[in-house]
Write a structure and sequence with these properties.
alpha+beta; four-stranded antiparallel sheet; 3 helices; 45% helix
């Protein structure tokens, strides 16, 4: 998919997290990609395994939240993930990042589900660690 499409997915995730997950400060969630219309033909097999990372941290005004995002980005290399999209909720309070694995090792639905679950677990830890470390640097 084109980068602007992934950024829109990230914007939608940030808006969803702001409205429906306001009680969760930060975390990682599996993302189900449903492509319709002209976008459907742009979806690669590797793009079906994506995870969203978000923070309800007042991104626009909070330096610590922006530092947290930078630390998550640095951790992606260790997580064998790549950022494909970034977005904010409409009020700029919540940020979200869409991440996929660098390499797709599994081709069955069970294998893809396993890879997605492992990436989610790694990113969950990364975002929480990044928040803790964001104020110490």
């Amino acid at each position: 998919m084109f980068p602007h499409v992934w950024n829109q997915v990230a914007n939608n995730l940030a808006t969803h997290a702001r409205k429906n997950l306001a009680f969760v400060e930060r975390g990682a969630v599996p993302v189900r990609v449903v492509a319709e219309g002209p976008v459907a033909g742009q979806l690669d097999e590797d793009e079906s395994v994506v995870v969203g990372v978000f923070g309800n941290d007042n991104y626009i005004t909070n330096d610590r939240a922006r530092r947290e995002v930078e630390l998550v980005r640095q951790h992606l290399q260790d997580a064998r993930g790549i950022e494909v999209g970034f977005g904010l909720s409409q009020d700029g309070y919540t940020w979200a990042m869409v991440v996929r694995p660098v390499e797709q090792h599994y081709h069955t639905e069970a294998g893809k589900a396993f890879q997605k679950a492992m990436l989610k677990a790694i990113l969950d830890e990364a975002v929480n660690s990044a928040w803790q470390n964001a104020s110490t640097r």
